[in-house]
TrEMBL record, chain A:
SUPFAM superfamilies found in the cross-reference section: SNARE-like
Cellular component, GO annotation: cytoplasm
Protein name in UniProt: Trafficking protein particle complex subunit 2
Highest taxon listed in the record's lineage: Eukaryota
InterPro entries: Longin-like_dom_sf, Sedlin
Gene3D superfamilies recorded: 3.30.450.70
From TrEMBL, chain B:
Gene Ontology CC terms, in alphabetical order: endoplasmic reticulum; TRAPPI protein complex; TRAPPII protein complex; TRAPPIII protein complex
Pfam families: TRAPP
Species assigned in the record: Linum tenue
Record has Hydrolase as a keyword: no
PANTHER family: 41-2 PROTEIN ANTIGEN-RELATED, TRAFFICKING PROTEIN PARTICLE COMPLEX SUBUNIT 5
Superkingdom: Eukaryota
One annotated GO biological process: endoplasmic reticulum to Golgi vesicle-mediated transport
Keywords: Endoplasmic reticulum, ER-Golgi transport, Golgi apparatus, Transport
Subunit: Part of the multisubunit TRAPP (transport protein particle) complex.
Location(s) in or outside the cell: Endoplasmic reticulum; Golgi apparatus, cis-Golgi network
Protein name: Trafficking protein particle complex subunit
Family the UniProt entry places it in: Belongs to the TRAPP small subunits family. BET3 subfamily.
Length: 128, 213
């Protein structure tokens, strides 16, 4: 099953600290930039939405063509944003939770630093 | 050969599971470490305000990390009233709730953070009478101050600035910027003064609270 997904971690101060593109579908050349653009545009929506609910997992907050943005906001207002075309909500939620745990562990090392180690984790997205 | 137990070695620190339970640390070890921290900073600064600021910054780093970890660990019981009032299910949810309201984050600091860091909830949480944006968390004696005595010539300096930094770190990371300071409040009939952590929230917090209703 061909899937495209773009994943970004944005800190509280709106600084991206991790980005990754993943997916088995063939990509156009500018797909990566387009995905980044869509995710950044969704940041405003997340900002407002984050204060209306105390849940961490916000799904389908924005759409672009057939791609959908889902966000997971941590307690420290770090946003884990995923741009995807699949509809597997549970899989995405568990993906976010696993990344959240990894993020907490890395957070102890240095606040707000860039994270390279999460690359291996994207294999989970492939399963979605 | 004596049977040796196999200890699971984690090659990568990230693979180690996030510890679930409470870890207790020796009080004397902490007191020693904290006294070294204060003494080290004392050699680096010229005045008391700078020393307080450094202790606060040290606490800030602790608070920011604390918030993420504790919110993740905390299990929350949701009480949902369904259509029929008689049927009220309770269910356990694996952590993952953020605090979005002022009172929520304050009681989180007062209970959960204090419990994990100091082994007990804080003595009291009060709202300031003079200003709308002031709140106070009081403690008969802060754990960090237990083995510290302040010489007279240091005036109003309080090593509780470290704890004030922790509180500021938690509040700031949760999106409630505030100025947090620690003060000694003399109590009648008691030899040692009580310590109060004074929290003064920024304008935007009050505006957002008003907007959320």
């Amino acid at each position: 099953m061909a899937t495209t997904a773009s994943f970004i971690i944005v800190s509280r101060n709106d600084i991206p600290i991790y980005e990754a593109e993943v997916g088995s579908a063939t990509k156009r050349e500018d797909a990566a930039q387009l995905h980044q653009f869509v995710l950044h545009a969704a940041l405003d929506i997340v900002q407002d939405l984050a204060w209306t609910t105390s849940a961490m997992f916000l799904k389908n907050i924005d759409r672009f063509n057939d791609l959908v943005v889902s966000v997971y906001v941590t307690a420290g207002h770090t946003r884990l944003m995923l741009l995807h075309d699949s509809r597997n909500d549970d899989g995405i939620k568990s993906f976010f939770q696993e990344v959240h745990e990894l993020y907490i562990k890395v957070n102890f090392l240095q606040l707000g630093c860039s994270v390279h180690v999460l690359v291996f984790h994207l294999s989970i997205v492939e399963k979605n | 050969m004596i049977g040796a137990s196999k200890i699971k070695q984690y090659s990568n620190v990230l693979e180690k599971p996030l510890s679930k339970g409470k870890q207790e640390v020796s009080l004397s070890a902490f007191a020693f470490l904290f006294s070294e921290l204060v003494q080290y900073n004392q050699t680096q600064v010229d005045n008391i305000a700078e020393l307080e600021r450094r202790l606060e910054d040290a606490g800030y780093a602790v608070g920011a990390r604390c918030l993420e970890l504790l919110c993740h660990r905390e299990k929350v019981y949701h009480i949902i009233v369904k259509l029929c009032v008689m049927f009220m299910p309770f269910w356990l949810s694996q952590g993952n709730r953020r605090e979005t309201r002022l009172l929520g984050i304050l009681s989180f600091v007062h209970s959960t953070v204090w419990k994990v860091l100091f082994g007990k909830v804080a003595d009291s949480l009060e709202k300031g009478t003079e200003h709308e944006d002031e709140y106070m968390i009081s403690e008969k004696e802060l754990l960090v101050n237990r083995f510290i005595s302040i010489p007279k010539d240091m005036g109003t300096f309080n090593c509780g600035a470290f704890v004030a930094g922790i509180v500021r770190g938690v509040l700031d990371s949760a999106g409630f910027p505030a100025v947090v300071t620690a003060h000694f409040v003399p109590m009648e009939g008691q030899q040692r003064p009580r310590t109060t952590i004074l929290i003064k929230f920024a304008e935007e917090v009050l505006r957002r609270e008003a907007r959320l209703g």
